[in-house]
Specification:
Distance between the termini of chain B: 70 Å
Radius of gyration of chain A: 28 Å
Number of strands of chain A: 6
Order of helices and strands of chain A: HHHEHEEHEHHHHHHHHHHEEHHHHHHHH
Strand content of chain B: under 5%
Oligomer: heterodimer
Largest sheet of chain A: 2 strands, antiparallel
Helix content of chain B: 55-70%
Number of strands of chain B: 0
Helix content of chain A: 55-70%
Structural class of chain A: mainly alpha
Largest interface: A-B, 44 and 27 residues
Strand content of chain A: under 5%
Strand order of the largest sheet of chain A: 1-4
Number of helices of chain B: 3
């Protein structure tokens, strides 16, 4: 028996109530298990509960991020806010065929010319050329012969220039192209066109591009909540959380935190125990909220070729961070003590109503869209200005795309980038993106799309898989947005505790990201001795805190005044 | 001066529209802050039980 005193007392109360009801109420199906009970025997089973939860969360993220969600988000990012699209797909296949034919011919000719440059003479037999995989960015070596070269030359002559998508089917230009044409027609200044196209449309568009994925994710989470499964997760996790010093009650704020961290933090009010409440406030924002989804999708798509595991792992890393923090903090004097008892009634499983689920999805999605139109739009204007203006030898002026390293943000980012160098992403772009994420986490995507105008390919070039994952984890677990920090301050009702919470989150995630990068480099034989020593020291400290015996004071040490 | 204005009329009009938009956004953020709404846009909709809680009490209050 691993039940604690509170659970036993609660159970006895239910047994007592059951005995009273037995005498006055006759059940039609007495002794039989209801459908909900039968499902619960499997779903809340002490061994199967957690694996089932992991599989369900993987499916939720797989469907929303990889299958349906990606198709819709790719359309929004690459076509609606990118280059344009074919109405009802008319002309798409013809263009794709011609574009592929032209691109292959160009690569063969490039390979032929590269051979001449390298060897000083034309190849007489086979020669190699390289094709880049669009998703993994891997360069694949192919071989061509003289016949292929002759065919490639003919193809290039046939097309004369690269096929234009507008020449095929019913082509609809993207929003940025339409606005760009309108600004040119009106004769707007170049800096203003830059602000609107490279700043506002690129930044806000990058964030809005993730709306389809988010709507599908919110829909699936709403279904899980409405059918009664989420309540079971709280029950399953209570057993796990209690072992690590947190109450199952802490799961409710975390569950709410999947939508937005602020109501999650406020929901911690239900925890009576002050120490548990503070710990829950400190750890609730570790769970990826809706605002972090675009950023997770961007890293998963650009650096990991759209892997569903990356998005799912973000959820479980959040949970692991909560559990590890729970264990470590409980070992300190500030948080020691028994977790609060957790009693909740599990609703019977039921089919969710379409109206409720769709309304929940739309309300969350709409608040995300509103945010993109307000705070994100303002941020993109400031970020664009600080990115495209800077001090050069000619004084303060607008910069070209090749001069962005002289911008105001490059100067600020360059001054702080060294802090993140041990984490694997010590460039000013990543450092500034992390800082702008404090305004709103969606800003990371908006900022990156201003810094890297060529999109995901350029992002992938600037991150390895290891540094990309370290960047993902850092921004996932570090201090939340300013609005959430404000909520922490309101709930803690103390500046000291607020700073402690923010400081703990930042230090904790710095240690985790350091370990990811340094141990990752060790595996790829690219190690840095000082960084590795620091990572081992962090790991040793965490292991010490995790396995340090828990001591709770059993003796009263304070002087107590006795009155007669 | 008039020459400069006529040459840059499009830029001036777009700047005015953009400035109005920015002022409007800032004003709405300040208004929301005063009303106690969060700038992050979340409220009841951010809650997992946003459409499920209090249904019973609403129904009970109906005549």
């Amino acid at each position: 028996m691993d039940d604690d005193a509170e659970s036993i007392i609660t159970n006895e109360r239910y047994v007592y109530i059951g005995e009273i009801i037995k005498g006055c109420y006759k059940k039609k199906s007495a002794g039989k298990l209801s459908k909900s009970d039968k499902i619960d025997r499997i779903v809340t089973n002490r061994f199967l509960g957690l694996p089932i939860f992991a599989v369900i969360m993987f499916l939720v993220y797989y469907i929303s991020m990889v299958t349906v969600g990606t198709t819709a988000t790719d359309w929004a990012n690459d076509e609606l806010f990118g280059e344009g699209w074919y109405l009802f797909g008319i002309g798409r296949s013809e263009y794709s065929q011609d574009a592929e034919k032209y691109s292959n011919a160009s690569l063969i000719v490039e390979g032929y010319e590269a051979y001449i440059e390298e060897n000083g003479s034309a190849p007489t037999g086979d020669f190699s050329y390289f094709v880049q995989n669009e998703e993994t960015l891997e360069l694949i070596e192919n071989t061509a012969d003289q016949n292929d070269y002759a065919q490639a030359i003919n193809t290039l002559k046939e097309y004369n220039s690269e096929p234009d998508p507008a020449d095929y089917g019913v082509w609809v230009p993207s929003i940025s192209v339409l606005v760009g044409n309108a600004l040119d027609w009106a004769g707007a200044a170049d800096w203003l066109s830059g602000l609107i196209i490279d700043g506002i449309i690129a930044g806000v568009g990058a964030v809005l591009g993730f709306v389809p994925q988010m709507l599908i994710l919110f829909l699936m989470l709403a279904i899980l909540e409405a059918c009664g499964y989420m309540a079971r997760i709280a029950f399953v996790l209570d057993r796990v959380f209690r072992k690590f010093g947190l109450s199952g009650k802490s799961f409710i704020p975390m569950l709410i935190g999947t939508g937005c961290g602020i109501p999650g933090i406020v929901a911690s009010r239900t925890i009576e125990n002050e120490r548990d409440r503070r710990m829950t406030i400190m750890t609730t924002t570790f769970i990826p909220c809706g605002a972090k989804i675009p950023f997770i999708s961007m890293v998963a798509g650009a650096v990991f070729g759209g892997s569903a595991w990356v998005a799912t792992s973000a959820y479980f890393i959040g949970m692991a961070a909560i559990i590890i923090s729970g264990i470590m903090l409980k070992k300190t004097k500030m948080f020691s003590g028994d977790p609060a008892p957790f009693v909740m009634e599990l609703p019977a499983y039921h089919l969710p109503t379409a109206g409720n689920v769709l309304r929940s999805m739309w309300e969350r999605g709409w608040s995300f869209i509103k945010k993109a139109g307000t705070i994100i739009l303002l941020s993109t204007i400031v970020i664009w200005f600080a990115t495209y203006f800077g001090f050069t030898s000619d004084g303060f002026r607008m910069l070209g795309e090749e001069e962005l390293d002289k911008s105001i943000l490059a100067a600020i980012g360059g001054a702080i980038a060294w802090i993140f160098a041990p984490l694997g992403w010590g460039n000013w772009q990543a450092a500034v993106s992390s800082i702008t994420g404090l305004v709103a986490k969606e800003n990371i995507v908006g900022t990156m799309s201003i810094f890297y105008p060529n999109g995901w390919i350029e992002i992938a070039e600037n991150f390895t898989k290891i540094s990309g994952y370290s960047f993902l984890v850092f921004n996932l677990l570090c201090a939340p947005c300013f609005a959430a920090i404000g909520a922490i301050k309101r709930e803690m009702n103390s500046s000291k505790w607020t700073w402690f919470a923010i400081g703990y989150q930042c230090l904790f995630v710095y240690g985790i990201a350091l370990m990811i990068n340094q141990f990752g480099l060790l595996l790829t034989n690219d190690l840095n001795i000082i960084g590795l020593v620091a990572a081992v020291a962090v790991l040793a400290f965490m292991i010490y805190m995790l396995f340090k015996p828990y001591k709770e004071s059993t003796k009263l040490t304070k002087a107590v005044k006795l009155t007669q | 001066m008039i020459m400069w204005i006529s040459e840059n009329i499009a830029t001036i009009i777009i700047c005015i529209i953009l400035t109005t938009l920015v002022i409007g956004i800032i004003a709405s953020l300040i208004r929301n802050k005063k009303r106690g709404k969060s700038s992050c846009g979340c409220g009841c909709s951010g809650c997992a039980m946003s459409n499920s809680c209090h249904l019973r009490s609403h129904q009970d209050n109906k005549p």
